[in-house]
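Quick sanity check, Amidinotransferase:
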Amino acid sequence: MCPPRYFAVDYAINPWMDPSQPVDVARALAQWTGLRDIYRRLGHTVEEIEPRPGLPDMVFAANSGTVIGGRVLGSRFRARERAGEAEHFRRWFVEHGYRDVIMPSRINEAEGDFAWTGRILLAGTGFRTDPEAHAEAQEILGVPVLSLRLVDPRYYHLDTALFVLSEETESAPARIAYYPQAFSAGSQRVLARLFPDAVLAGVADAECFGLNGVSDGRNVVLPVEATALAERLAAQGYEPVLVDISELRKAGGGPKCCTLEIRK
């Protein structure tokens, strides 16, 4: 995670960003701290990277890389405003002992568009990550990759429209939650075929970034406004943990955007 010390909305690279609206950096930092502390309270280890001036979106650490089995596929941003983040995150991985760090040749916005199910890497495209980056991820990470097309610009990253509730194990398949209308008709059919027991979200939960959730298989961290989704998950045995990310949402981010999951 990366604290939003230099958080701002000085430009618009997604439909949620409006530079004319004021941003409260202190509030953003307090919300981020609350999210970090929730992870720690749930027993997870949180490592932090130092933010850099001039990179206000660095708080969205999910875009910094994809880590599976200790191998790191770095990021390459489409927007020039975020391009500088990639090298800072690459250095962090190297300085923290990761020896297998490979930077992509194609536009690849990391866990923003990649979701690991324990067997298959779900990969989004349509607005940010290049389709060719999916094949590159398969070659570098050595895992099967399934491409999904996003069609609604409000859900410009896969992690704004889908997240993994529990990874596949020997005894149980993976489970996901997603917002169907964010995907092309063909991608909707693929998801329905692969995940027939998925939790489907409605428009209200999608619009508050309810699909930008983080799950450890039991506890599911969601924006506080995602009440219907939280109720649906609770009914199925999950433990919703609600967090206020309203200030960070002004830049088009939520819990998952702030969180890179490192799988060693």
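Posting the structure with no commentary besides this: The chain is about 25% helix and 15% strand.
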